Amino acid sequence: MKKLRNNNLKPLNENDIRPKILMQEQKKAMKADIEWLKNRSMDFVNVCCPSCGSKNSKPLYVKYYLNHLLCNNCLTQYISPRPTKAVLEDFYKNSLNYAYWAKYIFSASADIRKEKIFKPRAFFLKENIDSKYLNGNLLEIGAAYGYFCEEIKKLNLFKKVIAIEPTPDLAEVLRKKKIDVIESSYEKAKISFKFDVIVNFEVIEHLFDPREFLKWCFKNLNRGGCIFLTCPNIGGFETTVLGKESDTVDHEHLNLFNTKSIKKMLEQAGFEKVIVSTPGLLDFDIVKQAYLEKNINKNRLGPFILSLIEDESLDSEKKFQDYLIKSNNSSHMMLIAYKPKI
Asked: Is the separation of the CB atoms in 320 and 241 below 8 Å?
């Protein structure tokens, strides 16, 4: 098996994919979504750790009216009580925040997202899938604006590329791009055949029950097929330094895994050859901007990080970010795992 790697090491900053000029209005839409959830809080339910199932957890803090807990067993951070599946389905169908991202932010950052994020993911998959599973079927769950579907179709690797997308505005975008889309949650999707590859990017952290989701993926994969996913790493540099102030900690991210807890969860779902990397490119830039905008106190950073921020050389920043990637300490994870052939 080829070593997991990400060829996307070109400089990237937060403004490239989240233009500041658009984010002010996005915050208004996000605030409306938070209020919507707050008004449905009577329908929330308590859950055990979404990764290992342990009831042994401790409270961390409250953010956006939501209680964040830390599992003492696997160090997964999660929200409990949380919206039920029915509430979540209703939420994503009516989300003003998602509609805003679909209409403005994704379109404004489309070219750079394709070039620096989704094209490398497509090539990575090409290099890491068994050749006998090519010309098969690929499913993307939560396809959003369809960037990955577009890039993987350009490589002509699969007979069918199908997307599941529950958010109406995003599903309409996919249809306009002539991408086969099932406008549904994954649980309610009507599928008559299995897949050789299932991909999902920044999805699993949003789900009510991620273990159930992985079992669904396992069931709907052909033998020897693979799952390829990305999600935040709560144990990474940016998320550790910023803590509660990190944008990763929001009202939508119900499950925040670390590199060890998510690997174990996939193995418990039946997957093998689980490889985890942290190819995230934005840790240092996000922490730097938080400091420069006075969102965090310099005491949080320490002299070493402060010296890198004050160093005007971009080379030192890149070297530090490269170190975070190579040591699996970036705050963005990428995983690939396989269903046993026998």
From this structure: no
